């Protein structure tokens, strides 16, 4: 019994000593780690907040340059791949490098016309290109083999001239309003609209976007339809006013219907319908004088038709069709700009993982994808409708139906007109 009591006391003493050692060791560890646990979370949170709140300006700028570079490289790749297989050069007004009866030919032509690298061609380069075309006009008697060797150079000269000079007036188009300047100048504006999360920012970028679109539509219109400064000002005011009204109405509706946090998320979906409606109205309003006054009709060689002295060569039917088709292409253009980037980042696994693990890459990646989608979507949507479109004689005004084609001595069956871009 005595031995048993000694064993119990010894065991209890050892257990007590062991418990004291564990408590002492735990207490020491707690004291040594407590300050770190109390100080590290605020430091990490502060760093995360400052990191997430700062706008990745440098990365977004590099992404914009990369997007413009991809569009320019795509145009150069098409030019190189088709340089030796395109149609022979012709100096006729409506002659084109590619077959304009196919979508592929129209897309290739418009992609080369929207090439941002054309902005690097200064006045001297444009003048030299124009001089080469004029010299060819004086040397039409060259043998076919010699003309074939020069076709690529002549087509490139024509591309440079057409990128900077209006086809109807011959006036120099300012760089921001050329088709080749659409991606580098309007692309960043589209990115800003997509990224807008408040009514104020959406209205501002909508105004900038529609102002630039109005000037692009004006400088690339069919200039044979006269437009006074007063008409231009009224058209611009109506186009931009309607754009801001649509953007403000949709954003106000979203903010009233949803909570502030939810409304901020929904604002990115407001940009698309407002851009579709605003761009369509912009194009239609700015070019509506073409419907009122009409545009000239041409023969198969691009020459304006000659009517009796009492009539003028202006077709309202052609004007209306040209404006309507151009307006529709402007509406369709918004789809690749607003949907492709988000779809790609959500569907393509590498892009999705990149955004999930590195949220700061979302804005630069969106910038890059928007510019590429815009740069390739623009020529694709314009190519839906041929620039030099056809109008059946039976569908034109009565004054055109009795005109005789001097080549066939028969009434014209089809007329052509320039719908503009």
Radius of gyration: 33 Å
Q: In whole angstroms, how far apart are the ends?
A: 111 Å
- H/E element sequence: HHHHHHHHHHHHHEHEEE
Structural class of the helices, strands and pairings?
mainly alpha
Overall strand count: 4
Share of residues in strands: under 5%
For the largest beta-sheet, the strand count, sense and barrel status come to: 2 strands, antiparallel
- Give the averaged pLDDT, no decimals: 78
Shape: globular
Helix content: 55-70%
Which strands sit side by side, in order, in the main sheet?
1-4
Uncertain runs are 1-53
Tell me the count of domains.
2
Output the number of helix runs: 14
Can you offer a commentary on this structure?
The chain is mostly helical. The protein has two domains: 80-164, no CATH class; 175-418, no CATH class. Helices cover 68% and strands 3% of the residues. The chain contains 14 helices and four strands. The protein has a two-stranded antiparallel ribbon. Strand 2 and strand 3 form a beta hairpin. Helix 9 packs antiparallel against helix 11. The longest helix has 52 residues, at 2-53. It is globular and about 70 Å long. Mean pLDDT is 78; it is low at 1-53.
């Amino acid at each position: 019994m005595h031995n048993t009591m000694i064993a119990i006391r010894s065991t209890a003493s050892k257990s007590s000593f062991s418990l004291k050692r564990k408590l002492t060791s735990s207490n020491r560890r707690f004291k040594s780690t407590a300050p770190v646990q109390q100080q590290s979370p605020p430091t990490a949170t502060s760093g995360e907040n400052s990191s997430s709140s700062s706008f990745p300006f440098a990365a977004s700028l590099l992404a914009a340059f990369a997007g413009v570079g991809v569009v320019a490289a795509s145009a150069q790749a098409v030019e190189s791949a088709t340089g030796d297989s395109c149609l022979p050069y012709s100096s006729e007004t409506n002659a084109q490098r590619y077959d304009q009866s196919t979508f592929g030919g129209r897309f290739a032509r418009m992609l080369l016309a929207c090439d941002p690298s054309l902005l690097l061609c200064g006045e001297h380069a444009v003048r030299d290109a124009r001089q080469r075309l004029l010299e060819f006009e004086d040397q039409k008697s060259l043998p076919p083999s010699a003309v074939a060797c020069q076709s690529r150079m002549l087509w490139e000269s024509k591309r440079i001239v057409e990128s900077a000079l209006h086809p109807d007036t011959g006036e120099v188009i300012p760089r921001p309003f050329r088709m080749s300047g659409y991606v580098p100048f309007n692309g960043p504006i589209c990115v800003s609209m997509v990224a807008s999360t408040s009514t104020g920012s959406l209205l501002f970028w909508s105004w900038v976007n529609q102002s630039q679109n109005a000037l692009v539509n004006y400088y690339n219109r069919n200039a044979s339809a006269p437009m006074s400064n007063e008409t231009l000002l009224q058209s611009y005011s109506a186009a931009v006013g309607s754009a801001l009204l649509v953007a403000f109405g949709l954003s106000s509706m979203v903010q009233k219907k949803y909570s502030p946090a939810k409304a901020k998320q929904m604002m990115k979906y407001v940009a698309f319908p407002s851009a579709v409606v605003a761009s369509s109205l912009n194009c239609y309003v700015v070019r509506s004088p073409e419907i009122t006054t009409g545009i000239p009709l041409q023969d198969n060689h691009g020459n304006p038709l000659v009517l009796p002295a009492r009539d003028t060569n202006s077709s309202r039917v052609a004007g209306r069709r040209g404006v309507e088709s151009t307006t529709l292409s402007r509406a369709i253009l918004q789809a690749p700009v607003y949907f492709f980037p988000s779809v790609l980042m959500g569907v393509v696994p590498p892009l999705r993982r990149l955004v999930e693990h590195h949220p700061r890459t979302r804005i630069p990646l969106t910038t890059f994808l928007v510019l590429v989608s815009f740069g390739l979507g623009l020529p694709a949507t314009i190519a839906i409708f041929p620039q030099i479109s056809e109008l059946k004689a039976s569908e034109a005004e009565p004054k055109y139906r009795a005109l005789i084609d001097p080549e066939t001595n028969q009434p014209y069956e089809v007329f052509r007109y320039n719908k503009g871009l």
